[in-house]
Design goal:
The chain has a single domain, classed as Proton glutamate symport protein (Orthogonal Bundle), CATH 1.10.3860. Helices cover 77% and strands 0% of the residues. It contains 19 helices and no strands. The longest helix is centred in the N-terminal third of the chain and has 40 residues. The protein is globular. The two termini are 14 Å apart.
Length: 439
């Protein structure tokens, strides 16, 4: 078989495997001679990969905002005069809340069963020795507390839509786009037709640009993953391995357990078809650790490989990339309980319920960018009474393995969004999913 005829998800998977293999090799070279300078070919390889990965990520980010706004405005405009619009919105929000709650409860149960923070003093000291400088991260969370959860709703109404776009305030952009599309649909027929033509044309351009950028996904994935693996030493997992395993077990239960059950029982679809259809988006999410940056690939997979209509996917997916953060909410819950176990802080049932609620709410307000959830974790830790010095130490400990876990939970976030589009589409009476062969 001509390797260049491989489907996109196989190309990305091959790039991912090669990046991991070469990254481990470079890491071993660095570990073998820690005081010696790295070979020239290693320095050049890491430099080139960093450049390629950054370029690909920037290209994805470049089209995220126009893709979100044009997709939602067009979808709501087409639905604005349809009585089903309110029903579709309600279904979407109920689905996101329900799956988010399931994810957090899974995290809570797993972390209480496995007790990753119940370690001996020597292991605790080993964790603290590896704590990195978190000044920049703590500065972002300075002065924040549980009361700032209210700000999530305040930020939904931007005083300046252009500033919101520049700052990447996706929740504000989505809210504006929904209102814009809804009231555009109330225009007289001649004006509505011109608006539809304009936004459909703009959306078509962005979609074509998305298709072009996605062609370079295998190269971009290789460039993003290799430096991460090369600089993440295996020694980090010596002390944090059990915590990382706890997070992965919880994420795995949601990814391979809850989501397939929802697809099978509610959508009446074969989960294996969904995994095959979403493989490029899942792998891209794992590589970029950003559900927002992965949105163009997610929409491409859901519409072309899964066969969900633009009517449903253009509304649910941009919204999901901002508010449906199953993996993030699960991770936040696990981290807070883990740190309570580690530092010997008692967590009553009511306190753990508070953690569940805050994890759900803060995951909504977390931008779909790498490591943003650590700032939300600071808010939760402060809200449940962690002393400031332990908050900083705790974040420093988690930061050791956050990058790899961030990649994993982002993949869960994106797959959850795609399942939502399928489930909601089926409840809306759509048929004929998975038209393409994804084998």
């Amino acid at each position: 078989m001509n390797p260049f005829k491989l489907k996109l998800h196989w190309q990305i998977l091959c790039a991912l495997v090669c990046a991991i293999g070469l990254g481990i090799l470079i890491n071993q070279i660095s570990a073998g001679s820690p005081d010696a300078p790295l070979p020239t070919w290693v320095v050049m390889t890491l430099g080139v990969c960093d450049f390629i990965g950054t370029l690909f990520l920037q290209a994805l980010k470049m089209i995220v905002i126009p893709l979100i706004m044009t997709s939602i405005i067009l979808a709501v405009m087409n639905l604005g005069r349809d009585k089903r619009f309110a029903r579709l919105g309600l279904k979407t929000l109920v689905y996101y809340f329900a799956t988010g709650l399931m994810a957090v409860v899974i995290g809570l149960v797993v972390v209480n069963l496995l007790q990753p923070g119940d370690v001996n003093p020597a292991t605790r000291e080993a964790m603290l020795v590896g704590v990195q400088n978190t000044e920049s991260l703590m500065a972002k969370a300075e002065g924040r507390s549980g009361k700032d959860v209210v700000e999530i709703f305040v930020r939904m109404v931007p005083p300046n839509i252009f500033k919101a776009a520049v700052e990447g305030q996706f929740l504000a952009l989505i809210f504006f786009s929904i209102l814009f599309g809804y009231f555009a649909a109330k225009l007289p027929d001649d004006l509505l037709a011109s608006q539809r033509t304009f936004w459909a044309g703009l959306n078509g351009i962005i979609t074509a640009l998305t298709d072009f950028i996605i062609l370079f996904a295998p190269i971009g994935v290789f460039g993003l993953v290799l430096p991460t693996i090369a600089t993440t030493g295996a020694e980090l997992f010596g002390t944090m391995g059990y915590f990382a395993l706890t997070v992965c077990v919880a994420l795995g239960l949601h990814f391979f357990g809850v989501m397939p059950l929802i697809l099978a029982l509610i959508a009446k679809e074969n989960p294996l078809q969904q995994y095959r259809a979403m493989a490029p988006a899942i792998l891209t999410a794992f590589s970029t650790a950003s559900s927002a940056s992965t949105l163009p690939v997610t929409m491409e997979c859901v519409q072309k490989s899964a066969g969900v209509s633009k009517r449903v996917s253009s509304f649910t997916l941009p919204l999901g990339a901002t508010v449906n953060m199953d993996g993030t909410a699960l991770f936040e819950c696990v981290v807070v309980i883990f740190l309570a176990q580690l530092f010997g802080i008692e967590m009553t049932l009511m306190t753990q319920f508070t953690v569940v609620l805050l994890a759900l709410l803060t995951s909504v307000g977390v931008a779909g960018i790498p490591s943003a959830s650590l700032v939300a974790i600071v808010v939760i830790l402060s809200a449940v009474g962690f002393p400031p010095d332990l908050v900083e130490k705790g974040i420093g400990i988690v930061f050791l393995v956050d990058r790899i876990l961030d990649m994993s939970r982002t993949a869960v976030n994106v797959f959850g969004d795609s399942c939502g589009a399928v489930v909601i589409g089926k409840t809306e009476g759509e048929q004929g999913y998975y038209p393409a062969s994804n084998a």
